[in-house]
Amino acid sequence: MKHNFRSQRPDAGSRFAGRRSVSRFEFIAPVAIIDPVTKTHISGSVTEISQRGCFTEVPSPLTDDSIIQLRIQTDEGAFETWARVIYNRPGVGLGLLFIDTAPDQSKLLAAWLDGLKGR
C-alpha cells in the first residue's frame, strides 16, 4: 500500500509545536533587515510570527547568531526591534529571535498577536 506523505506532512514548524513556549501564527508582512556590522540591507516577507520571534523569507542568508535590526510594516504600524539569527535556511529564509524589544514595540506586537488569536 502506497502512502502519500505529502498530504500527511504537518504545517510548517508544527513538528516543534510541543517544544515551543509560545504560539506561532501565520503572518504575512514586508520586513526590512539591516546588519549593522556589514551595513547590509535586506528586504523580504515575514511568514510566521510569535511573541519571541519570526520566520522571514529573504533572498540572502545571514550568518547564524548575527544580530540585526528588524522592521516589520503593516497597516497598523511598524514593529521595530533587534533580533538574533537563530537558524538559516539558504534559499528560503531566516529564523529570528527578538531581543531588547522596547516596551512600546512589545505592546504593538502583543496587539497584533491578540488579533491573530481570533482567526
Describe the fold and architecture.
The chain is an alpha+beta fold and 119 residues long. It has one domain: Beta Barrel (Thrombin, subunit H). It is 16% helix and 47% strand. It contains 2 helices and 6 strands, in the order αββββββα. It has a 6-stranded antiparallel beta barrel with strand order 1-2-3-6-5-4. The radius of gyration is 15 Å and the shape is globular. The termini are far apart.
Major pleated sheet = 6 strands, antiparallel, barrel
Kindly report the name of the CATH homologous superfamily. Answer: predicted glycosyltransferase like domains
Mean pLDDT: 85
Q: Give the spatial strand order of the biggest sheet.
A: 1-2-3-6-5-4
For the terminal residues, how far apart are their CA atoms?
A: 37 Å
Oligomer: single chain
Total strand count, please?
6
Q: How much is the radius of gyration in Å?
A: 15 Å
What class would the helix/strand composition place it in?
Answer: alpha+beta
CATH topology: Thrombin, subunit H
Count of spatially separate domains: 1
Topology order in helix (H) and strand (E) letters: HEEEEEEH
Q: In terms of per-residue confidence, which ranges show pLDDT below 50 for 5 or more consecutive residues?
A: 1-12
Helix content: 10-25%
In DSSP terms, counting alpha (H) and pi (I) runs of 4 or more, how many helices?
Answer: 2
CATH class descriptor name: Mainly Beta
Shape: globular
| Secondary-structure arrangement, i.e. CATH architecture | Beta Barrel
Strand content: over 45%
